[in-house]
Structures are given as C-alpha cells and as structure tokens.
Specification:
Elements: H1 13-35, H2 53-72, H3 88-95, H4 98-116, H5 137-163
Helix pairs in contact: 1-2, 1-4, 1-5, 2-3, 2-4, 2-5
Amino acid sequence: MPQPDDTPADWSERSTLLAMLGYTRATAVQTATALGPAASGSAPLATSPLMTAGAVVNHLRWVDHWWIEHVFLGRPHQAPWTDDDPDREFRLGAELPLAEVIDGYTAQSERLDAELASIDLDATTAMPIRDGHHPTLRWVLLHLIEETARHNGHLDVVGELIAGRPVS
C-alpha cells in the first residue's frame, strides 16, 4: 500500500488544507487496514470498550458527514448517533466488517472532496454552532484535520496494543 502523501498539488491554501485532510484520512485507513479484518473489532483498552479500529474509522466517517454535509451544507442529519445512544457510530463500526467501514469512509471522502472543490474557503456554515456563530469552510476543514489527526493517535495506540508493535 502506498504511503499517504501530505504534499498539496499546488501550494495554495485550499490545496494545502485538502491535502492535509486527505493525508490524515488516508493515514487512518492505512493504520486500520494494517491491523487486518480480524483485529478491526478488537478493543484492547479495558476502559474504552468501543475503541476499535473499525469503530474509530466509522466515527471519522460520520464526523465528516456531520460537519460537511449537515453543519456546512445544511443537509439533514443522518449520522447514527442519538441522544439515547451518543456512541452508536462507534458501536456499529466495531460490528461491521472493516472493509465495509473503510469503503464507506473512502467513498464518502471522495464525494465530499468533489463537492467542496469549488466552494470558497470564506463561505460560512448553513447551521450555526456554539453561540450562534457560522464558521467558515476553512475552519471546518481545519477542525476535521485536527479531529482526524487526534483519532489517528488513538488508532496508533489500539494498533500497537493489538499487534504488539507499531503498525503505521
């Protein structure tokens, strides 16, 4: 599998932001894939029974949906979590085959990247967030880079505990 690449196509702000988001996404997929299908549902942290490779990747998929499709574009909320089950996307990700989770995440990422390609970075979200603010697409992309990178650290820890060695 080729190594994820964080080099933008050009050095514009848009290209750099999308390259870094793509890099963090590809790193998550690569780390989860390296564990293999049998390990994707393994939760090696006793205090975090939902922290599996499949669960983390599925969470990332739905976080992208939430921020881009719901908050930014104003589309209906379709993420699986509810007030009664706020971790449902983690639970589902641990139960689904890893290949299905990765395919869903990858297909959605490609579709969303194509949709965002022509939207100005200064465009604001359709839905307000904290205190009624409508952040820019730039902020949403930076937030998703941060969120995905943070969860890549979780995947590294889960992977190392499962494999007994670094996996990425």
